[in-house]
Amino acid sequence: MGEPDGEKATFCYTMVASTMGSVAVTAVCTPFDVVKNYWQASPALNHQRINTSGLQVMRHIKDAYGWRALWNGTVTSLVYQIPSNWTFFLLYERWREDVPDGVASAAARATAVTLFSPLEFLRTRVQATTGMGEGAMATVKRVLREDSFSSFWRGLLPTLVRIHTTGSAMMAIFKEYRLRGFTVGLGPRLLKVIPGCAIMLGTYEFCHAVADSLELDRVLKDQKAELPSSSKSTG
């Protein structure tokens, strides 16, 4: 009885911790995602994408569409982040018992990315079209109308191997923009990734620390409750 209860508690703690972390990361880091995706893919910046900065892009979004536009795609981000982090942490906690932490982490992340790649693709599209009045469902319909269902997994392999573009795309960017083309959106990306990782892992570890403390209190109470009966049987 104890072991299944412990596994159930660990499952619940992991779900709660990853959910809280996902919400915190989304609330804090969505503006950086919006700036990065708008900067890299918005048609509005076609002729000035290179000769601009992340701060200028943020000001442009704020002036053109208002501050709320910096949180465009928040719901889509949550729909992607929460199940993705559930999958990652649950698989990581399970697999790290059998393989090294690095292998467990990489395998869990690859699984989560593969399963939820369509949601990440949708989030990126929604944020890249900030100001165009196109929501998630309208974006899905447009992608299916103009492309195909498989396009929702487009870019999966480069994501898995941490290569953000193919060789031909690299050459096209290099010929058009030279080396600076590869740094477009780098600043917002770093500003999002660094605090995002800190918030996610910090929240996860904090929730687990609280859960471990509660579990320890429960065990101590159970032990105290057993002491009188043990004393009587000894007497």
Task: Quickly list its features.
single chain, 235 residues, mainly alpha, Mitochondrial carrier fold, 2 domains, elongated, Solute carrier 25, transmembrane, repeat, membrane, transmembrane helix
Write the layout of secondary structure elements.
Elements: H1 2-41, H2 54-65, H3 74-95, H4 101-128, H5 136-146, H6 156-160, H7 167-177, H8 186-234
Subcellular location: Mitochondrion inner membrane
InterPro entries: MCP_dom_sf, MCP_transmembrane, Mtm1-like
Main location: mitochondrion
Report on the structure:
This protein has about 240 residues and is mainly alpha-helical. It has two domains: about 170 residues, Mitochondrial carrier domain (Mitochondrial carrier fold, Alpha/alpha barrel); about 45 residues. It has eight helices and no strands. The protein is elongated and about 75 Å long.
Terminus-to-terminus distance? 29 Å
Could you give the count of β-strands?
0
Q: Runs with pLDDT <50, length 5+?
A: 163-172
The H-and-E topology, N to C, reads as HHHHHHHH
Profile the largest sheet: none
Quote the CATH topology of the largest domain: Mitochondrial carrier fold
Number of helices: 8
What's the architecture of the largest domain, going by CATH? Alpha/alpha barrel
State the assembly state of the protein chains: single chain
Under CATH, the homologous superfamily of the largest domain reads Mitochondrial carrier domain
Question: Rg from C-alpha positions?
Answer: 23 Å
Structural class: mainly alpha
Query: What top-tier CATH class of the largest domain fits best?
Result: Mainly Alpha
The coarse overall form would be elongated
Mean pLDDT over the full residue set: 75
Number of domains: 2
Portion in strands: under 5%
Helical content stands at over 70%
